[in-house]
TrEMBL record:
<keyword id="KW-0732">Signal</keyword>
<keyword id="KW-0472">Membrane</keyword>
<feature type="transmembrane region" description="Helical">
    <location>
        <begin position="87"/>
        <end position="109"/>
    </location>
</feature>
<dbReference type="InterPro" id="IPR019372">
    <property type="entry name" value="LHFPL"/>
</dbReference>
<dbReference type="GO" id="GO:0016020">
    <property type="term" value="C:membrane"/>
</dbReference>
<dbReference type="Pfam" id="PF10242">
    <property type="entry name" value="L_HMGIC_fpl"/>
</dbReference>
<keyword id="KW-1133">Transmembrane helix</keyword>
<protein>
    <submittedName>
        <fullName>LHPL6 protein</fullName>
    </submittedName>
</protein>
<keyword id="KW-0812">Transmembrane</keyword>
<feature type="signal peptide">
    <location>
        <begin position="1"/>
        <end position="21"/>
    </location>
</feature>
Length: 139
């Protein structure tokens, strides 16, 4: 297999893929915030939640649903900030994954990644990482 990458490029491609995979897993996991409510352990992320309160109309009380799942709709995400975070983090993860997969393809295909393409891909990766990190820090 011919490669269009240098040794440093191959290392960058594999590290990029690992970082993109970790970012995507972190995006899909509901463990961004942990706490307790109604004496139950709860956690939620941008679009997933575990152990959440639901109003039981028949008993006129609030009960805890002890399971994990996505919000029923985009509008069901608790606040506008969390909706924005979901979109920005999802876009960041998508950019990171796109660049990482392209870089991995560069390990197998000659003349796929030139010096200019590598620089542009690094810039896109920086932007994707900046989007993911900024939301993770609560900025």
């Amino acid at each position: 297999m011919a490669s269009s990458l240098t040794c440093a490029g191959v290392v960058w491609a594999f590290l990029s893929f690992l970082c993109a995979a970790a970012s995507c897993v972190g995006f899909f996991m509901p463990y961004w915030l942990l706490g307790s409510q109604l004496e139950k352990s709860v956690s939620f992320g941008t679009f997933r939640r575990c152990s959440y309160p639901v109003r039981d109309e028949s008993r006129q009380t609030t009960v805890m649903v002890e399971q994990c799942g996505r919000y029923a709709s985009f509008q069901a995400i608790p606040s506008a900030e969390w909706r924005i975070c979901t979109v920005v983090t999802g876009l960041g993860c998508g950019l990171l994954l796109l660049v990482a997969l392209t870089a991995l393809m560069g390990c197998c295909v000659s003349e796929l990644i030139s010096r200019t393409v590598g620089r542009v891909a690094g810039g896109i990766q920086f932007l994707g990482g900046k989007c993911s990190c900024r939301e993770g820090m609560g900025a």
